[in-house]
Amino acid sequence: MNFLSNNIILHESLLRRRTNYIIWLTFFLFAFACTKNQPVTPQNPVIPVPPPNPPVVQSNIVIRASDISFLPEIEAASIQYKSNGEVQDPLLTLKNAGCNFLRLRLWHTPSNGRSNLLEVKSMVSRIQKLGMQVWLTMHYSDSWADPGKQTKPDAWKSLGFTDLKTAVSTYTSSVLSEIQPDIIQIGNETNDGFLWPDGKISANEMQSLQLFQAASASIRNIAPKAKILLHYGGLNGSEWFFEKVKGIDYDYAGISYYPIYHGTSLTALGSKIKQLAGITKKKVLVAETAYPFTLGWNDWTNNIVGLPSHLVSGFEASPEGQKLFLEALRKTVDLNNGIGFCYWGAEWVAFRGTQSSNGSSWENQALWDFNFNALPALNAFKSE
Q1: In 10 A of CB 41, how many CB atoms?
Q2: Which terminus in the chain has less CB density within 10 A, N or C?
Q3: How far apart (Å, rounded) are the C-alpha atoms in residues 137 and 115?
Q4: How do beta strands 133-138 and 227-232 pair?
């Protein structure tokens, strides 16, 4: 072959290779396109890619409680509580709503026999059979203990301080040998101590702290798994109290918040919860609260809350307003790292008849209406 022939042969060879390359590339691209765009069939389903899950916000609220200390007395008056118009055990109604703790007061030797150890023990049994938890408030008194009065039981009035401290230890241990609460509250709204005058902080600080610690030590000894709660009634001055008791062995710092007594600002409540958490290094909760579903009345006992000035702005005295208030309070507690709340007087309906002048001063703040039907505010107890 001459030079020209060789060049022609080489040129034809290159053309064939280029043509083959184009054919194979075209085939590959076609096959790939078919794979990408193949029809959706049962044998070839399109599997959707789920969107990323939103971040889970963990609620701080673990205690959703209601005080039901009046219930034995009210049930003895043949009152029947209802849910959706049907008669239902109020404890079950609370449980179904999401309430997980029930709070009971204990008086030492009450003159009327109410809230004594026998009655409380019976209630504890009912609560625990429903799988709910018990919050016991030991008043260390024969009757109401609160910021204005902390009266020693009659049985202890003649005791000197050493014997009084022994009585606190012995009594606390005796109670806990009978019942097993999950939360034990030492005193009730002990703004200036308890068991006055011996245990009044402003007058006998060291003695008061010894009485608190005597109760705490007995609880740790008899019921080591129980949580110990100290309780201040209100917002103002609470930091003073919790500074005073910082050496006491306890778990939870509780405060009361009633708008009529403690101001109508949920913002102030949130700030106080955050402040107390920093001061105490403890878990903080609202140990008592309530709100009206009406400013009307159902008996002739004067209601504690009855004026528009008693209300929080934006929350009217209506079933819906009561619900919205309690939901807002729960959110306030949660956002400020509080661990829970307790609704006080939920069960305290007008139980002595509509003509009674010695009935319920809390009837319009109960969680059952004047026909004893459960109210929408129970929705605030729901678990999340």
Answers
A1: 8
A2: N
A3: 10
A4: unpaired
Contact 156, 167 (CB under 8 A): yes
Q: What is the mean pLDDT of each run of 10 residues along the chain (384 residues)?
A: 39 45 43 43 55 70 98 98 97 98 98 97 98 98 98 98 98 98 98 98 98 98 98 98 98 98 98 98 98 97 97 98 98 98 98 94 98 98 90
Query: What Cα–Cα distance (Å) separates residue 22 from each residue in 10, 26, 29?
Result: 19, 6, 11
Q: Which SS3 state, helix, strand or coil, does residue 146 take?
A: strand
Other Cβ atoms within 10 Å of 5 Cβ, number: 9
Q: How far apart are CA 221 and CA 227, in angstroms?
A: 12
Asked if 212 contacts 164 with a C-beta cutoff of 8 angstroms, the reply is no
Helix (H) or strand (E) holding 246: none
* Spatial CA neighbour of 273 closest among 60, 66, 100, 99: 60
The tokens for 215 are 């109760």
CB atoms closer than 10 angstroms to residue 14: 10
CA distance 155 to 138: 16
Query: Cβ–Cβ contacts within 10 Å for residue 158, how many?
Result: 9
Give 40's DSSP letter: P
Residues ≥6 apart with Cβ < 8 Å to 21: none
- What does the alpha-carbon distance between residue 169 and residue 214 come to, in Å, rounded to a whole number? 6
Neighbouring C-beta atoms of residue 24, cutoff 10 Å: 10
Cβ atoms 121, 134 nearer than 8 A = no
Pairwise CA distance, residues 332 & 67, whole Å: 20
Q: Is the distance from CB of 193 to CB of 201 less than 8 angstroms?
A: yes
Residues 90, 68 contacting (CB under 8 angstroms) = yes
Report strand pairing: 63-67 vs 101-106. parallel
Structure tokens at 207: 């003695």
Q: What is the pLDDT of residue 319?
A: 98
Separation between Cα atoms, residue 101 and residue 124, nearest integer Å: 11
Distance (Å) of CA 84 to CA 81, 93, 257, 369, 372: 10, 10, 29, 12, 10
Q: Which residues of 237-254 are buried (b: 16+ CB within 10 A; e: fewer)?
A: ebbebbebbeebebebbb
The whole-number pLDDT of residue 52 equals 64
